[in-house]
Prior knowledge:
By secondary structure, this protein is of the alpha/beta class. The protein has helices at residues 5-21, 45-48, 55-67, 85-94, 135-150; strands at residues 28-33, 36-42, 75-81, 98-103, 128-130. The chain has a 5-stranded mixed β-sheet with strand order 2-1-3-4-5. Helix 1 (5-21) runs parallel beside helix 5 (135-150). The model has no long low-confidence stretch (mean pLDDT 95).
Amino acid sequence: MKHSKEYFMKIALKEAEKALLIDEVPIGAVIVKEGKIIARGYNHRESKNDVTSHAEIEAIRKANKKLKSWRLVDCDIYVSIEPCMMCMGALIQSRIANIYYGAKDYKGGAHISSINALDAKNINHHPHVEGEILEKECSEIISQYFKNKRK
């Protein structure tokens, strides 16, 4: 059975909810190969004191381990927010086929919101990128998190 982009984004949102439970910025990601989820991740930057522990990086590490390869050829990632420069760089380097994200990140997004990493000259891989999948739901969870933080 072929699942929709919305289906996988809803699962990425469930990962974001796990981050929320440990007081992390609620961002979640899932990596899919041949229609099956092979890895999941959510933010652990604060709890691990590790700047690289973004949802995408956590999912990439798990997918690499599962596939026994650093290459994620023929894989897709669904992430609840537009990837930052670090994550976009890792996704490009991993050779991931498709990047699907929910909400735009106007402060740090590296697809269209702040900068477009794919505009870099001479990069050797250009994944397909598509945003605004369940954008409202993905935006709301982060907005609500920061509203609660400011209280």
